[in-house]
TrEMBL record, chain B:
PANTHER family per record: 2-METHOXY-6-POLYPRENYL-1,4-BENZOQUINOL METHYLASE, MITOCHONDRIAL, METHYLTRANSFERASE
Any single Pfam family the record assigns to this protein: Methyltransf_25
UniProt key word NADP: no
UniProt GO MF annotations: methyltransferase activity
Residue ranges constituting the Methyltransferase domain according to the UniProt record: 194-290
Matches recorded under InterPro entries: Methyltransf_25
BP GO terms, sorted: methylation
Protein name per its UniProtKB record: Class I SAM-dependent methyltransferase
Amino acid sequence: MVRFRSVEKVSDEKLRPEDAPPGLYDDQGNPRFFADPGMDRFVAVVMNLAQEVWVQEERLLALEEAKSGDAIDRDAKAKEFIDRVFAPIREA
Amino acid sequence: MTVELQHPMKADATPDEVARGRFVSGMRSLILNDLAGDMRSAYERRAAPAFKKKHGREPESSREAHQALRGDPAFNIYSAMRVQAQKMVWASVADSVERESDRLASEAEKAAGALGSLELDPALEVPKNVHAIDVHLMPGSYTRGADSLEAGAVYDRGLAVFSMGLMGANLDDIGLSMSQYIKQRHPDFAPQRILDTGCTIGHNTLPWKQAYPDAEVIAIDAAPGPLAYGSARAKMQGQEVAFRQMCADDLAFEDESFDIVWSSMFLHELSKKQRAKAFDEAYRVLKPGGLVIHMELPPNEQMGAFDGFYLDWDSYYNNEPYYKGYRDEVPRELCTRAGFADDQFFDFVVPSIGIYGDQAVADAAKGDRAEGVCQETTGRLAEGVMWYGFGAWKK
Ligand SMILES: C[S@@+](CC[C@H](N)C(=O)[O-])C[C@H]1O[C@@H](n2cnc3c(N)ncnc32)[C@H](O)[C@@H]1O
């Protein structure tokens, strides 16, 4: 059993630093950064998608490893992959 | 770098889950190293000059640096990606924690007979800063799964992904670096009783038991689940620690009963009022000659506008509502207001023992008050991290 010190309307209360201008968040309370709010969602989608591609990549690496018998440095491969995919944002 | 936890409650993750975690660590590394660097150069090249044009001077505070950066493309991409990467940290461990809840419980059961103890207080009202917001976007916050092992497992596994290897395999780099610093700087100090406040799963408690094996070590937190997990984790690692559910701003200990009151990454999660009370309580429970010591983010007063805002970012965008308020306070005043003498205050910077090695910590302990509070690497989880700490001796 856990007792909670009561808060009015816990679920929709958003604690924010006192000086946070309201324009930092959308009407759901999520932080927003881009002029077009769709962009904030879109960045997240691209990251999720890249993660899914990387998961497939690791499956292939496992097959390659099994075939060749040589161990593959997955951390190093992941870094190369991420650097390659996200190179364009380095120009922001 | 991928971290593998050092105890039987580590995830029995599928290859896909391991790949997801590795990807998130890699993304965070890109964001916190490369994109952070891009944002700084955009600030210098674009944002600060634009601010100057409008106001006739450079941004002077964290708040003004924030104002200057809002809307800058490098700030936008850094921020949007950091928010999503943070959500991905917790998402990457959720499935394995859920699937393994029975196994975790049985592992904990197996270790139950080892030295150490757990005392929960079902009557304690968990304060709202612990349960009413998803602190650092962690779903369900510290009370997820009530007093089960769930919140602790999410935290432990999540931190392994989050830390990119910079907190060590046992996630104890902060505790190791700081306890070694104190032990080597004060070789005659022999604490008998040590208290960790806001210990979560005790990952930075254990190093104090290792540094002072004869001391009785007690670790408290307001959230029950992480304590249950932390107790099992400590037992599995053969470290005798007493975990107790309690609020740091209302300690159930006698006056003058501890030699050290320690915390790490804790003060910034308290409201200003709770924080002041926690300092009063620390002063009260310390024996004369005892030491209060906190590892924390370095304060705004010691940093430039950009570096200050770089840390304050979490307050606005990572569900850390008290972070900036904490960083705007002055560590020395937090101590003196609670009764510590002004000349007993000190602050310092310790190089991460995992990155720089034992000798670097020993050198820091021998040196003058470490320089480098205002260095870029201080308090920032990124390549070359150094930890900021402060404390005071009770006369
Ligand atoms: C970021 S975690 C600290 C982590 C840990 N000490 C470390 O070294 O990484 C903050 C912890 O403080 C706890 N906490 C917050 N307010 C508290 C209070 N008033 N009393 C005790 N614990 C509290 C939370 O439950 C949470 O476990």
